Amino acid sequence: MTYVFYDGQFLPADQPCLTLNHRGFLFGDGVFTTMAVQNGLLEGYHCHIQRLIKQCDKLNIKMPELSMSWISQLIELNQASGGRWRLKMIVTVENACNLALPDREGKWALLLEPVALTNKPLKVITYHKPINHALSCFKTLSYLERLYLKQYAIDLNVDDVLVTHNGHIVEGAFSSLFWVMDETIFAPHNHFALPSTTLNHIVNAAN
Question: What is the mean pLDDT of residues 11-33?
């Protein structure tokens, strides 16, 4: 059985835990980050948490306290102490009817799933415009545009799209990218793109 964590409780993944007037469901009100878990150990934890703190602050969400024991217990419950897994950490907001973004109390949702790694070459295609809106550089729960782009790629029998802005590559539908030429690392620099903790780590390690 797969388990998730929501608001202080460990629950079976198939057990409903959100009401229909939940702001995360109605408006995509919330932010998240996704980090790798390798053999039970978190990768890049502090960078991911710092980004969550900044984005919660920008959106007036009071980030709740987090106990590392919750993550450890979730790993144990899902028998995830070996291999590679993906931990999705969500700060979302429950029932508040205000059609704006006043100060709000956040709640934790934690999800864990295995990752199947592959080294196969990917087929990609460019898309003529970036994901461009007021919160395009935030990892909010509203991801419909990125799902649309992924389906666009699938319909064209490729693995991903590379969105562009003014003729320059920005990012993939769900991924950041970089390339190496003459022992130099190059990466897109565009304020539309989601900030990538992994990409920042790679660039900083190379400098």
Answer: 92
- Cα 159 to Cα 108, 124, 142: the distances in Å are 32, 6, 22
Query: For residue 105, what are the CA distances in angstroms to 2, 42, 68?
Result: 27, 26, 20
The pair of three-digit structure tokens given for residue 133, joined into one six-digit string: 């809106």
What integer pLDDT is reported at residue 77 of this predicted model? 97
In 3D, which of 96, 75, 72 has the Cα closest to residue 84? 75
pLDDT exceeds 80 at position 205: no
Please state, rounded to an integer, the average pLDDT across all residues of the chain: 90
